[in-house]
Amino acid sequence: MNLDDIMSKEPATLEDAIDIISSIKEAASKVVEDLGESDDKVKGLEEKNSELQGKVEELQASLEATSTSGEKALKDKDAKISELETKLADQATALHKELARKVVVLKHALGKPGVEKLDQAIEAHCTRTEDSLNDMLVDLEAEYKAKGGTEDAPTADNPLEAGNSDNLTEEKYDAAKLSAVLDTRKKRGRS
Q1: What are the contacts of 165-171 at 24+ separation with CB within 8 A?
Q2: How is the chain split into domains, by residue range?
Q3: Residue 91 and residue 158: Cα distance in Å, rounded?
Q4: Fewest CB within a 10 Å sphere: which of 3, 8, 99, 125?
Q5: For the range 93-97, what are the long-range contacts, defined as Cβ-Cβ under 8 Å and sequence gap of 24 or more?
Q6: 161 falls in which pLDDT band (50, 70, 90)?
Q7: Is it the case that residue 94 has pLDDT exceeding 50?
Q8: Which tens digits make up the pLDDT trace of 113-125?
C-alpha cells in the first residue's frame, strides 16, 4: 500500500488509528530506505561520472598531444618539401646557366659576334628557354665539327668549356685556344 491509500482511510476505532499510524511509519521507513538507496545510486552514478570525466580529460589530452605531434610532423615535412623544392629550383637554374654557358663558349670558339664578353653573353643567353638553348647547342656543335674543330666541341676537360669559363677573359680564352690548336697539331705531327 502506498501512502495516499493509507491516508484516505478513515479510522473507525482507536485500533484502526494505531494500524494507520503503523502503516504510515512503515511507508515512511520504506520511503527513507528508498531514498537511501537512491542516494547510494546517485553517489555511485556521481563516482562513475567523475571517473568517466577523468577518462574524457585523459583522452582529450592524448588527442591534443597526438594532434600537436602530428601537426609538428606535418610542419617538419612541409619545411623539408619546401627546402627540397628550393634546392631543385636552384639546381634547375644552375643547369640552365650551364647550358647557356656551353652555347656561349661554342659561339666564342666559332668566332660568332656578340659573345666577346663571356659573362655578359652568358647572362643574356640565360633568358632563353631550355629548348632554344638545346637547339642552338646542337646546331653549334654541328657547325664546330663542320669547320674542322676537334672531334668534340669544348668539354668540361677543356679549358674553353663552360664550367671553367667563370674567370675566362679574352686573353685566357685566346691562350687556351692557341694551346688547344698547338696540342692538336702536335698530335697530328704538324708543329
Answers
A1: 165/101, 165/104, 165/105, 165/118, 165/122, 168/118, 170/116
A2: 14-76, 93-186
A3: 23
A4: 8
A5: 96/126, 96/130, 96/133, 97/122, 97/126
A6: very low
A7: yes
A8: 888 888 899 999 9
20 contacts: CB under 8 Å, gap ≥ 6: 6, 9, 11
Please state the φ and ψ torsions of residue 41, each to the nearest 5 degrees.
Answer: -65, -40
**Cell, residue 75:** 610542419
CA distance 102 to 122: 9
pLDDT reported for residue 162? 43
The tally of CA atoms less than 13 A away on the side-chain side of residue 72 is 6
Q: Which amino acid is at 36?
A: G
**Longest pairwise C-alpha distance within the chain:** 155
Three cell numbers, residue 78? 612541409
